[in-house]
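Incident log, structure service

09:12 report received: a user says their structure output differs between two submissions of the same chain.
09:20 pulled the input from the user's history:
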Amino acid sequence: MQGSPDFSTQGAALMPDNGIIDMPLLLIEDDPMIGQSLTRALQDVGMCCDWVRDGLAGERAIALGKYAIVLLDLGLPKKSGFDLLKATRARGDRTPLLIITARDEIDDRVTGLELGADDYLVKPFGLKELLARIRAILRRNGDLAATTVGNGEITLNLATHETTYRDKTLLLPAREFALLHALVVRPGTILSRAQIEERLYPLSEEVGSNAVDVLIHYLRKKFDSEIIRNVRGIGWMVVKHPS
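09:34 re-ran on a clean worker, output below:
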């Protein structure tokens, strides 16, 4: 993409069910102009987007397992997009991945798809098309198929952000909902403070030392002190209940 990119948000509203807000996106792009413009545009339509500028940093970020989808440029320093994609799929990581590149040759498209990319989008492109591609990929990967998740006692409605616990239903703010979602999809598993922060906050955002504690306090106050269990010195969990 040449010149100053313009990812206009006009008419580019987020999907009605907000199905991709609960997990951030990862942009791997070395061009600062494109990276800044695209990150800002995605944030303007309600998406949390982390941005890294080389292949090695991108590989480390993908390994965190926190991203709904990866937007991958091919011409990256330190490790090419093709090499990163090949290594990611070789280790069994099936994180949805959309190649965004100026390379429009058929051979490049075929290579990207055969290496395991979910789609291939040639620059320049508009934000509306990018959002449509993201929606299509997540539908194919099942991320938008499930309306609710739960642990047998807690139920989260991914479409409305309503949370039900012991017959009490509340509409939660995004971060409280995301924290509870991170725990509920792994009932019985303890998540450390660092693991929770990785799932809730962009890489560029400074996180207060008690940010997680404050969110948990709010959730316990709204529902019950037992909704989230503290495992002293390790982290937090929700109890696994039989279905």
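09:41 both user submissions now match this output. Likely a transient worker issue. Closing.
09:42 reviewer note: The helical segments are 32-44, 55-62, 81-90, 106-114, 127-140, 174-184, 193-200, 211-222. The CA atoms of residues 161 and 173 lie 8 Å apart.
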